[in-house]
Amino acid sequence: MGSLFIKNFKREPITDKTHFLNAIVYTHRNPIHHGFCKSFEEWPHSSYPGIIYGIEKIIETDKMLKMVGSIDDFIEMHQINLIRFESKTNLEIPEHHFKI
Q1: What is the mean pLDDT of the chain?
Q2: DSSP secondary structure string, 19-88?
Q3: By CB neighbour count within 10 A (0-12 exposed, 13-18 middle, 19+ buried), where does 77 fall?
Q4: Taking the domains of the chain in order of start, what are their residue ranges?
Q5: Is pLDDT at 99 greater than 50 in this prediction?
């Protein structure tokens, strides 16, 4: 057992623009999801800050931003995804359901 003998992740080819953009947001959201940070900008190993501040050197940001529209659209895409993700994972029961 273990990752030496069993693959610990699933590979899936990216086949379209939507899947590509979702993979980017998923990758940027992962440290937030696992509690390592609270915002996209906080994680020091992420390309997100480099993309939004225009200093990313490894990723071809111009091509990626053309797919999204603009840097503002890129930021908005991340924020909307995070809000949707948090609302799906919030398992707390609203107070009005408690019997007092």
Answers
A1: 83
A2: HHHHHHHHHHHHHHHTTS-SSTTT-TT-SHHHHHTT--SSS-HHHHHHHHSSHHHHHHHHHHHHHHHHHH
A3: middle
A4: 28-86
A5: no
